[in-house]
Write the structure tokens for this entry.
Amino acid sequence: DAEITQSPRHKITETGRQVTLACHQTWNHNNMFWYRQDLGHGLRLIHYSYGVHDTNKGEVSDGYSVSRSNTEDLPLTLESAASSQTSVYFCASSEPIPGTSAGTGELFFGEGSRLTVL
Amino acid sequence: SQQGEEDPQALSIQEGENATMNCSYKTSINNLQWYRQNSGRGLVHLILIRSNEREKHSGRLRVTLDTSKKSSSLLITASRAADTASYFCATDAWGGGGSQGNLIFGKGTKLSVKP
């Protein structure tokens, strides 16, 4: 069965360290997204990609970067981790709604990566 | 900024009762989606309703969309303890067609169904 997996599921790091969260999907979806989830804020979009070599900034992109070298993977990198980046991170993928060029279709989410920055 | 806002923030009901959650949004949309999240898990898609649709059903779920009021509701009928979860509405970042949007989520409604 197709799936989307995130790793690591839990990570503790120190302020200033570089951290990379992996996201791998076997749906063969062109669209991939990274969200963070925090109490009181819901899910906020960090970065997204509509295909290989395409990346776009979301609502809360400062301090984060992504790269898309193939269809399956969209790693999220925190260049210099800060305590404010302690959060649960979710990766998701999707395809457009069939028969239309407008609108985002159903998102398939990973199980999340819980990051703690000390 | 948040596009969708769910109401209420928390809802506690008895098994067998119906649960209604509301979502309001600010700008034109292509579609609106509802997701469910069990504690400690990823979000799972429940239902998608397009901007030209007014009502949609899926099993015990009923979703309505009122684009004139920029609001949607999710009704879960005959609730079960297993329905205990957080429910989120999500809307496209922009409407008007021609381009894919990306989803912007509300803060969610936490539903507790007591046996």
Notes: Chain A has a mean pLDDT of 92. The first strand of chain A starts at residue 4 and ends at 7. The CA atoms of residues 30 and 51 of chain A lie 5 Å apart. The radius of gyration of chain A is 14 Å.
